Automatic annotation (TrEMBL):
Residues 1-58 form the HTH lysR-type domain. Pfam families: HTH_1, LysR_substrate. Keywords: DNA-binding, Transcription, Transcription regulation. It comes from Pseudonocardia eucalypti. This is LysR substrate-binding domain-containing protein. Belongs to the LysR transcriptional regulatory family. The keyword DNA-binding applies. InterPro entries: LysR_HTH_N, LysR_subst-bd, WH-like_DNA-bd_sf, WH_DNA-bd_sf. The keyword Metal-binding does not apply.
């Protein structure tokens, strides 16, 4: 007895006719009748009573029909579940990320991912850049999202990780509103050399602090830097007039009325957001779909028309 025989039997039982069942199954009657006869022979019982108007189920046939429907429904469900798992439509995805990437990059990407894969359970690990890297290396996370250091600055990511850049944006000066009126529409960081520069916590690998230091050094000075944990804390302290900062331009999305975000007058390297994964691991279907969406994400003009550089 095989599943094909059971499917044929169920259709014949539902149609109460070999002729109608054959049409529904897109078969001719002889092979269908042969399969039914083989099923009865293997079971050693009569399942169908044939007559001129069609067929009727015997007591054994009625009993088999009940069990066959349950068995076939279970097989269909298992087949669908396996297929959906293999396609990455169910399962689990764990993403480690630096909090500053959440608003501008991660949130829009996860919105698209969830719309495309609503039955995948997404788990998060929020940490510093070093912690994100270690979560990926230790397989606590499938993927990590971090800011890369400026070119030629900071430690490399190591041969065990694949790194894919998914977003680029310019740096911008983040100033208290009271100070902004004195520095112009394009900010020369050298004019802020006597200010305290607020920066998210330093990291051995990646992070935003190397970008701040690099931008100031390219402007000819070594900044006085005070570290805090999060970008949101930096913005709050700038609003209080306790310092200035250099951050990705998307910080405009969390800036308050007391904070002004302006483009820099000197060209400095853009900030690159990257997705990390273990090179040795074959990516799961869930990971593959996340990477497809991440690498297809457009890179908008995050400064917007109000802050566009003059051409």
């Amino acid at each position: 007895m095989d599943l094909r025989q059971l499917r044929y039997f169920v259709v014949v039982a539902e149609e109460r006719s070999v002729t109608r069942a054959a049409a529904r199954l897109h078969l001719t009657q002889p092979p269908l009748s042969a399969q039914l006869a083989r099923l009865e022979h293997e079971l050693g019982v009569t399942l169908l009573v044939r007559h001129r108007r069609g067929v009727d189920l015997t007591e054994a046939g009625t009993h088999l029909l009940e069990h066959a429907r349950r068995l076939l429904a279970g097989m269909d469900a298992a087949t669908d579940s396996v297929r959906r798992l293999g396609e990455g439509r169910v399962g689990r995805l764990t993403v480690a990320f630096v909090s500053a990437t959440a608003g501008a990059v991660l949130a829009p990407l996860l919105r698209r991912y969830h719309a495309d894969r609503p039955d995948v359970a997404i788990h998060f690990l929020e940490d510093r850049a070093d912690g994100v890297v270690e979560h990926v290396r230790a397989r606590r996370a499938d993927l990590g999202m971090v800011y890369l250091p400026p070119p030629g600055v900071g430690a490399g990511h190591g041969a065990d990780l694949d790194v894919a850049v998914v977003h680029r944006e310019p740096l911008a000066a983040v100033l208290p509103a009271a100070l902004a009126s004195s520095v112009g529409d394009l900010v020369d960081l050298a004019a802020l050399a006597d200010q305290v520069f607020l920066s998210p916590a330093p990291a051995t690998w990646g992070g935003l602090r190397p970008h701040l230091l690099n931008a100031c050094r390219l402007s000819g000075f070594e900044p006085s830097v005070q570290s805090v944990e999060l970008v949101s804390t930096v913005v709050a302290l700038v609003a209080a007039g306790l310092g200035v900062s250099v951050l990705p331009a998307s910080v405009t999305g969390v800036a308050s009325a007391e904070v002004v975000v302006r483009p820099l007058s000197r060209h400095v390297p853009v900030v690159e957001t990257a997705v990390l994964r273990r090179r040795a691991d074959r990516p799961s279907p869930q990971v593959q779909q996340f990477l497809r969406l991440a690498l297809a994400t457009p890179e908008p003009d995050v400064l917007g028309p109000a802050h566009a550089r003059p051409r």
